[in-house]
Amino acid sequence: MEDLREADVATGDALGASVRQKGVWKRFFHTCRVARLPYVWIGVFVVLTVLQGVLLVKIPQVNANFFAGDVSPKSIALFIGMELVTTVLVQGMLFVNHVVRYRTNRNLRNVLWGKILRLKPSYYDQVTASTLISRITDDTDAINEFVIDIVIEAGSQIYFFIVTICAMSVISIRAGLILLAFTPLSVLVAFITGRLSLKFENASKHRLSDMTEYLSELVSCLPLLKAFNMQAYETRRGRKVSEDYYKARKKLIFLDAGKTAVGLLIGTLPEVVIILLGIKMLKESTVDAAGWYTFYLYAGTFIGFVNTLAGIWTRSKSIQGKLSKVSDILYEDEENVDAYVGSIVADGDIMFDNVTFAYGEEPVLRNASFTIPAKKVTAIIGYSGMGKTTAAKLLGRIYEPAEGRILSCGADIGSCNLQTWRERIAYVMQDSPLLSGTIRDNLLYGLRREVSDEEIEEAIRMVHLEQFIAESPEGLDREVGQFGENLSGGQRQKIAIASAILTGSPILILDEPTASLDIISTDEIVNTIRSLKGKRTVFMITHDREAVRTADHVIVAEEEKRFVEGDHHKVSLLSRFYQDLMEGGANA
Which residues lie closer than 8 Å to 304 by C-beta, 6 or more apart? Predict the structure, then answer.
């Protein structure tokens, strides 16, 4: 299974990242290549479809024999045999259809998930989690709809169309041509309804996405909603997003109803013409009753093919939206994890050298320069929006500098293999979420080595979690719940720090490690940070005075994108913000 997953992930490596706008067919073929379609099964499906088409042509001829009075055992046996074979073919096609769909879905979902994991983190800032889930769970079926419902079905219907026209022409060329004259009208209606279907389907998808995003956010915040007594307000908002989605779907309902009515009208006209034409042909004796009946059956099949082709065109326009969204992800730029000259950067001081970075047009960091001493605790403080968390993400190479360099022991970390560098970083975010599972699972998540019980116990002791573990009946096997909801904020933070310690990474990034914690938990985490002095390079974003006092080196993000750094004495002389913070007056 591991080999299969790795193969699925590797399948997406050769994607053309520079391509942005592709036609639907180019997107389709590209997605087919990536999804590794089960071509053998598709071939079986095509063969079964052709055999079914042959029977569809033969069955009217057998029925005509009955109409002409031929009820011989041979005709009866042939009729029963053909019906049984048709049933077997239909069931076989249904089985193969399911095999193709499920295998293709599995392959494409694996590739898409692997692709999402390799995207640049900046992509996640633009797309919500619910949208990505929708792409993986729902929109991946677009490739199946295109392969089975559009390409193969359209091809088979065109084949049936041609075969039926030929069979009809044998009976009466004039009647076949008259019937064929109705085809442009069906094509025109299909074109118009297809364009409208694409427009309404896209609008419906956007409204569904809005509703899903609204519900996913509010459901996770229900206690907060009640605390602020916002039930009535959110009820109105919920009704509005639901009403917007209903209105979008209502347009599709009216379109389907109108399309069905027009389709029945268009289908009835040629039937009336065929009946009138048949009466004339019988009077003129240009065809006998059995021949006309056979032609009538062919005509009904022909009209069905035309309507099916029109429906395929309409469905193809609605499927384009889904396929386009999946393709957009497959064409997104990936993180470059391999193409780096260096492989290892030596331990040493880390220097931001005139680093500039912006999320939009306005830089968050502009020509930022400061130093993070090796194996010391560095605290970075400052006003909100001055780039403290951005600096941490740049150090962890979640983002890359737009200008400037980040140097470690004099070497540009941008020349180091991305995965190798990240293995040297342990990043503990503010309010670190935990994964569903046990405390042990979360402590060991991401570790690529065997960890002894003694190491786990030492890490637990360092974060002062040993008493909590000892008092829990399950110990390390206690379930933390989704996002760690069964634990307090301090317990979650301690587990996250303990997991970072177990990685053995030489660089530890702590983003507000004591925020929203009680005094006791804050003191315990500060003591943990103090115990790391001389062992790890600690880069800590904090505005807790005790945590700042623990630091060996302080960096202050001042206004106007200016940084002040040094020991406590030096920074106290240069930074008013530092003075106010340590005196209890700063507002970060």
Answer: none
